[in-house]
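## Example pair
The file below holds two records. Each record gives the amino-acid sequence first, followed by its structure token line.
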Amino acid sequence: MYKAIIVEDELHSREFLKNIVNTYCADLAIVALAPGVEEGVAAIKLHQPDIVFLDIEMQTGTGFDLLQQFPRPGFDVIFTTAYDHYAIKAIKFSAVDYLLKPIDIEELQQSVAKVIEKRKANTGQLALQMLLKNLQSPQTTEQSITLSTSEGLEFIPLQHIIRIEASGPYSHFYLKEKKKIIVSRNLKEYETLLTDHGFFRVHNSHIINMKEVKRMIKTDGGYAVMSDDANISISPKKKEEFFEMIGQRMV
């Protein structure tokens, strides 16, 4: 049995989450409820939970304010939020779980199962640390993305990624030093995450790091030669935007 704490400032949401966890998550025992950051910090120190359900935005501060009090957390987190919060992208970047309110029971069960697996592999706390680091350096090349592979979690600095190729439901990350990582998530998810960080989807099957384009060739339909010497076709629909981005890089 895993000990869990709920940190949530709305009484109704707090009680609802407690009830559905008690009913549908047999592996969890709710040991405390906290209405804010200060009470949440105290409850965590007192009960030493395995999992914390943590509201992102509370009247007394944010869930991140709470996490700052635990530089090396011994617990895993499932964030909860009533709307598509600005930090959701950073949370996805770091492979940390979150739930949108109103909370769906099936999504709750899936998140709990994933967090339990992370606890067994002892990787969740590293993902939390990466999240806090990314929040401190938004929109910079110093950010890292957390990739969940069959072997565990990989923390990859964005500047190490050359390109990402789709292969059915999988995404293949081609990195510097000829390293390759396969992730069981589709390319669309990474397009959404990486667009604001200098990456561009040039084709249905490829996202490229624009800083890793070595040459652009206008013949043979048009393609980009990447720093790993891969030739990546440019979709006719994307050519104008691609050349515009290349032009901005040359300024």
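Second record, same layout:
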Amino acid sequence: MSQKYPKFKIVAVLPAYNAVHTLQRTLNDIPEGWVDEVILVDDASADGTAELARNLGLKVFVHSKNLGYGANQKTCYQEALGANADIIIMIHPDHQYDPRLVPDLLLPIIRGDAEAVFGSRMMRPGEALRGGMPWWKYVANIFLTKLENLVLGLRLTEYHSGFRAYSKNTIQMINFTANSNDFVFDTEIIIQLKLKNLKIQEVPISTRYFKGASMIGFKRSLIYGFFIFRNLGQYILFKLNLVNYDKFK
């Protein structure tokens, strides 16, 4: 159980791909006593990420081939549930999100104020740009978030952050294994949370773009945007009882 909150077993999951140069820094910045176990899922890295993680004492699972960011998360959550986690927090091992903010994401769940907590880079106006986010990504983030809020009836400041924490109950209630294996997985989870009326809370986080941090390029971002539109359309059809999607059941 967590040293800070012994009633909860807190498991950090690290969806990794070629993170050998940033993994140690990420682990060093996780505040002591807040996480009981760290699970790293390696999506067929070619740089020795899995070997380093094992040497650092982490529980490691390796995909035999590259399956994608969403598929990595599926394995992360399945293995965290298998480890009897009460709270699961996702920390990207590329050090783009600041692990020192782990307590900020965990406390709302520990207090019972939320079932899911997202770190938002957009809560402080303009800070994402100051942190190095490309202007086109910043504008797209704002546009897509406004559209998603309009369709889903939510008031989130960002849908696209990968720094997230979930209660065990939340992960067990949603059909995350039916989601995409790609980046739109994160948006699909938000739609599932909305359909289950689960409470989401956001906390502000800093933005850190640097050489070596993972970031999808412009072309992949366009594809990502298309799949967000597609999922919003599927949500509308599902709510109108016109199409019954397994992931939204």
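Notes on the second record: The chain has one domain: 10-248. The mean pLDDT is 94.
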